[in-house]
Amino acid sequence: MRRALNVLARGAVGMTAALLLMAQASAATLLREATVGEPPPLDVMLTTADVASVIGRHIFETLYALDSTYTPRPLLAESAREDDGGRTIVIKLREGVLFHNGKEMTAKDVVASMTRWGNYGARGKLLMATASSVEATGTYEVTLKLSAPNGAWKALVADVNGGLAIYPEEIASKAGNRPIEQKDYIGTGPYKFVEWRPNRYVEVERFDGYKPVKDKADGFACARVAMFDKIRFIPVPDVGTRVSGVQAGDYDYAEMISGDLYESLSKDASVQVQRTNAPIFGLFFMNSKQGILKDNYKLRRAIQTALDKSQALRVAFGPKDLWNAEGSIFPKGTPWYSSEGVASYSPHDPKKAAELAKEAGYTGAPIRLLVSTNYQAHYDEASVFTRQLADAGINVQMMVVDWATLLKMRGQPEQWDIFVTHHSFSADPLLLTFLNASYPGWWDSAEISSLRTELISSTEPAARKATWDKIQALIYDQVPVMKVGDAYTYDIASPKLKGLNPNGPAFWNVSAK
Amino acid sequence: MWSFALKRAGTTAVTLVAASVMIFAFIHVVPGDPIYVLLGDTATPDQIDALRHQLGLDQPIILQYLTWAGHVLEGDLGRSIFFQAPVTSVIADGAETSILLATMTMIWVALIGVPVGVIAAVRHGTWLDQGLSGAAMLMASIPTFWVGLYLILIFAARLGWFPSSGYPSIFEGGVINLRYLVLPSLALAAPNAALILRLTRASMLDVSREDYVRTARAKGIRPWQVVRRHILRNALLAVVSAFGFTFAALLSEAVVTETVFALPGIGRLVVQSILRRDYPVIQGVILVIVVAYLLINLLVDLSYRVLDPRVELQ
Amino acid sequence: MSRDAAILWLKPFIARPIALAGLGILLTTVLAALLAPWLSPYDPNAIDPVIRLTPPNAIHWFGTDQFGRDTLSRVIHSARMALLIGSGVVLFALATGVPVGILSALFPRLGHVLMRMIDVLMAFPTLLLALGLIVILGPSLTNAILAIGLGYMTTTTRIVYGLTLRLRAETYVEASRSMGAGTIWLIGRHILPNLISPLLVQASFVFAFAQLGAASLDFLGLGAPPEIPSWGNMLAESRTFVTRAPWLLFFPGMMIVATAFSLNLVGDALRDRLDPRFRQVFGEKG
Q: Which of A484, B125, B234, B250 is least surrounded by Cβ atoms within 10 Å, i.e. has the fewest?
């Protein structure tokens, strides 16, 4: 017994000592963010995974950045000039921008990054497919020549997600299509990469050589100041645990909280709620290449006619504050908002749907719906729709798989008729996945391909908007995808944090009270 | 003794090779592909093929196996596709959490399971015994994740006595970080303590029926002395092996608890790697788990021999 | 079964009220599963978002979930899945474990190889094996049964193997052997009948653990397809509502506990009436 006490006493001394050590260590300020899961490699050019972008945007930067109205504003670029009817773009770079390895960013780095992005970047083809050359025409000047003008180019280089992040030349040029190594996570951002402990955290620390843009911060654009010494991005897969973690003070910020907790968390003094200003939207892709839905626009319209989208939104996202049954692909308040075709968005008319299906020659053959449970909202929406379609006599069979399997299966047109995913907010229609003919779904009818060309080559905003109106009308006619509706995700943070970014999790300019 | 150990080591090696072939075959029939997960939503088929080639995933499986096995013999488990780090260091990182979690759990199990089991056995047949055995059975019937959710809610979010989740290494924050493992280890301890309790009780009862115990009793030795000197010692023999296997199981099978508590342990590492098809990690971790299991198996057998010379090793 | 035998079987239960209670819970679950469509007040899959997340009240005794589905009806219907998974796993474990175990014990050469294979299988962590299988085969009821069953097949095989070895060594079996009895006759006359009661004990424990295993798989999203109501799926879908709608976690969780608990109680009671010769083979782990 005495020995046990002795051990206990020694343990207590040890713990006290450890506590003191901890107190000392915490003099450096640390922000702990609970992410939804472990990210893929942080080579943000290649990946479109949101988890990677959230971390990556602290390390890497782009030529432009989106402000709180989602307008591109210069970040690494200082200005740009378009010549030759928009076919030549001359970008002037900011001087004195340092990489984390201490070297100054010059036109060579941008050219190498742009080349790699054009070859392998997830969204690189959107701009670079028509590029005939990209050259350094000065230490701080890059000239991009296009075979046809591209009205969306600034928006296309304004986000790290699968986007044109600027890497040092030697890293970008040797990397090829293989994700860059951890030691090469060298960008120009306000934080630099420190280490990645699997399943534990990714740590970044303040980059002392960072020189913010002069203009006042707005969304992701303009001045970025690192207030915390370090940030740890900690994977916490269970949403309940993320919430309890912030409430208990173990995390300072937690992403993607379920809608049904919104009301109670809004009243909870131990957290602050941060709703995103840009909605994401669920998408049901129709197979345009093969199977029962190929070219059968009438059957597709029958399907959409049967649906009541607000039911699905309510189930998937909870309180009315967090969703909007909006038929326009772009939300109100954006320049792309359009009411073309939206009457067909969510009619919830099973009778008419049944008639349409009959006219389309549908006889009850099963329609295969591919969905993953990794995203609860996808599954919720699919369940509600399956039920509603059954009421209209349309026989949908859910194929529930894990996300990795879904990603592979959806590339095989013989495997599915509809698959479920979601789309994050885009600043320009060209960034929409379903306008990309090689994206699963493969929407490439004659009508859309001519409209697509029109959208890319016109540079005048009003003309582009007119084209977009036609495209949206076509979307409700040919139904390559069904939009579920706008959903506003929200995050929670410790009440101590101030200066949270309205565009999403980004922790420069964020400080503790 | 030594010839036994050698022979066992031999069969262990054979088992290991068989297991490694199984792991490999198993993994490569899983549908899905790490490339898709790696490159994300918008990758083009060309990009996918090119990367698959670079990672060597387009080679015949036999060739992939031989390459892998060759490296393993040199102590190299390959590199994780996702973490971009050597598999050995990824595993080592997870092992810290898993080993500490399993150890802490086993401490609870020993502190609760064994003494309560002894009490139940000594009071065999009384209401106390029935009550304790019943309670043990109840504990063994509760899903750990369910308990975990409530533990977080009550002791972390409401009362704030313990951290809710995560586990920063003790090498960074000192032993104080062990407090992160208190709630998860308690959740895991409940069913395992129940099993050990029942086992302790049963083997105590078995031993107490043995002749030498009767003799001791007949000699008039005081009941508690009999329990301590004669019964407990022999009864614990069976308990020791159960401890070994429970520990081995905890290293890898705490997946659900690790998910609920966001612990960076081995179990979650495997599940996540399976879901992302990070082949080198899956292969490496399962290999390590199998080795650990076989080693513990071996140790348990050897410890029998040491604890009880009567046991003949086959 | 004769009257005496029935009394013999019931005896351990009568002596222990708690075991009797377990038997009662079990029978209730079976009844709920069989009569689910008549017992449950609503269609378990009827979606009505307007009344979603209503706390328990006079109309919905157990409240409603995020789809507005009636929790009580879902809890009742889930009993079917519990019984299906449980009996599926038991059947699989017995159908594979019994022949392999008996043959291994009777034919030592074959036994050596087979038991070695069982060793390899046992070295794989059960839950991981199950997870891997589910990812390969895709989530479905059959696959969940297969994945969980595989883990218990190994323990069952070992138990049958151990028991058969003992039986074989018993004098009467030796005697009938020396009289030239055929293997099939030997198995049918001497081995199988003696295995029945220990296997019943094993079955009740496997059934109990299968409940917990299935719940874990469901929780990780790899168990029964989510469109089928099961207690584990109900927990998995509603785990974020632990504060917002605690009833969604409470009722299915309690059902898992009650079912597994009563199975354990029954198994325990059965074990106590088991021939002491066999008890040891069980270890105690079951």
A: B125
- Give the global pTM: 0.81
- How far is it, in rounded angstroms, from Cα A252 to Cα A495? 9
pLDDT band, residue C279 (cuts 50/70/90) = low
**ipTM for the whole complex:** 0.79
Residues 6+ apart with CB under 8 A from C41: C61, C70, C72, C73
The residue written with tokens 């971390």 in the block is A55
Residue pLDDT, tens place only, C90-138: 999 999 999 999 999 888 888 888 887 887 777 777 777 787 788 777 7
Per-residue b/e over B48-67, b at no fewer than 16 CB within 10 Å? bebbbeebebeeeeeebbee
The DSSP code for A215 is S
Q: How far is A311 from chain C (nearest CA, A)?
A: 6
Q: Give pLDDT, residue A4.
A: 46
B183: confidence class by pLDDT, cuts 50, 70, 90 = very high
Which amino acid type is present at position B293?
Answer: Y
C123 part of contact set with chain B, CB < 8 Å: yes
Question: What are A242's two structure tokens?
Answer: 């993320």
Contacts of C242 in chain A (CB under 8 A): 240
Residue A66 burial (10 A CB sphere; 0-12, 13-18, 19+)? buried
CB–CB of C67 and A264 under 8 A? no
CA distance linking residue B30 with residue A34, whole number of Å = 30
A298-335 residue pLDDT tens: 999 999 999 999 999 998 888 899 999 999 999 988 88
Touching check for B195 and chain C: CB below 8 Å? yes
Q: Which B-chain residues 65-94 have CB contacts (< 8 A) with chain A?
A: 80, 82-85, 90, 93-94
Nearest to A176, CA basis, from A108, A118, A134, A104: A118
CA nearest neighbour of C75 among C205, C250, C260: C250
Mean of the per-residue pLDDT values of chain B:
82
Amino acid of residue A68: S
HSE (side-chain half, CA atoms, 13 Å) at C60 = 24
Tens-place pLDDT, residues B250-291: 887 788 899 888 899 998 888 888 888 888 898 888 888 888
Q: Is pLDDT above 70 for A445?
A: yes
Calpha distance B311→C11 (Å, rounded) = 37
Domains of chain C listed by start with CATH number: 3-51+59-278 (1.10.3720.10)
Interacting residues of A208 by C-beta distance below 8 A, sequence separation 6+: none
For the segment A116-124, the average pLDDT, to the nearest whole number, is 89
The Cα–Cα gap between A264 and A285 comes to 34
The CA-atom distances, in angstroms, between A329 and each of A2, A221, A280, A342 are: 73, 24, 10, 9
Distance CA A498, CA A512 (A): 6
Spatial strand order of the sheet with A418-423 comes to: A323-324, A481-487, A280-286, A418-423, A367-372, A396-401
Which SS3 state, helix, strand or coil, does residue B309 take?
coil
Cα–Cα distance for residue pair C209/B195, rounded to 1 Å? 12
pLDDT at position B40 over 70: no
Cα end-to-end span (Å), chain A: 48
Closest partner residue to A260 among C135, C221, C240, by Cβ?
Answer: C240
